[in-house]
Amino acid sequence: MTASTAHAGAGAGRSAGELDSSSRWARRVRYYLPAALVFIGVIGLWEVAVRNADIRGLPLPAPSQIAGALVENWSAGRWSLGKAAVATLGEAVGGLAIGTAAGVVVAFLTARFAAARELLLPLAIAASAVPIIAFAPLMNNWFGVLNPLSKMMIVAVLVFFPVVVNVIRGLTQVEPAALELMRSYAATETTILRLVRLPNALPYFFTALKVSATLSLIGAIVGEYFGGTSSVLGQVIVASAGALRFDVTWAAIILGALTGIVFYLVIVTIERMVIPWHASVRGLEP
Fold first, then answer.
1. Residuewise pLDDT in 10s, the chain (286 residues)
2. pTM
3. In b/e form, how buried is each residue of 231-250, taking b as 16+ CB within 10 angstroms?
4. How would DSSP label each residue in 152-183?
5. Is the alpha carbon torsion for 14, 20, 25, 29 positive or negative?
6. How far is CA 191 from the centre of its chain?
């Protein structure tokens, strides 16, 4: 092979790589552009409507006012939204960890033992049927109104059932052919669990985590409505609305939503790293 041929091959390889990269960016732009345009359009219409229409009786400030309140109260002032968001996120993460750990244990026991299934599954269903707002005063009384653990337990109850249901499905809905193949090699149940059931359960597990990521923020904020320190999003929403500072109220609401979105995206990123081979993850790429 001559030097000119080698240089030509390397140049062709670089060109192909650059073309693939540019086409991937073009696909991503086409994928996200409609949503971005709709978002910008809604914000623009909202701003124009509040500024020009006679809706002063509604507690709906303009987006520019909300953004100003968010910047003004991010780290200073009476509300300290940044500190409140971090505190609420800590409660959500702690509750998600507790609820996920409990849900995985119950799912394993339920999938493995019939007696555990008859005992634990009805309890899980009953816990999910109780409105979360009914648990909030109980948890605050049990663990203390100012104790973040009370909010974590509310979140744990909220995320427990989705984890249980999805992990049970992942452990039990396995291809019969895969089980037959493993048993034909005289594999033990532990080996089947490690090589077949656990890999099959991982996509279901991450589905439960993605659902629970946003639910955990909701549970934490609902729990904070019933009491807590002043530096959490739920209490900021209640106090600012009582003071008729609806710009701060909406800033706290939007900050809570953005925190939930970031939490969800973190779970999606971890999912892509852990199970890049699964079709559900490959389908996330635009």
1. 555 554 545 555 555 555 566 777 777 778 778 888 998 999 998 888 888 876 666 778 889 999 999 998 888 777 889 999 999 999 999 999 999 999 999 999 988 887 888 888 888 888 778 888 888 888 888 888 889 999 999 999 999 999 999 999 999 888 888 888 888 888 888 888 888 999 999 999 999 999 999 899 999 999 998 887 888 999 999 999 988 889 999 999 999 999 999 999 999 999 989 988 765 655 555 5
2. 0.82
3. bbbbbbbbbbbeeebbbbbb
4. HHHHHHHHHHHHHHHHHHHHH---HHHHHHHH
5. positive
6. 32
For the record, the structure tokens of 248 come out as 């701060």
Phi and psi dihedrals of 78, rounded to 5? -70, -30
Cα angle for residues 16, 21, 27 (degrees, 5° grid): 125
Residues 6+ apart with CB under 8 A from 189: none
What is the distance between the alpha carbons of residues 151 and 166, in angstroms, rounded to a whole number?
24
Tokens of 120: 């634990």
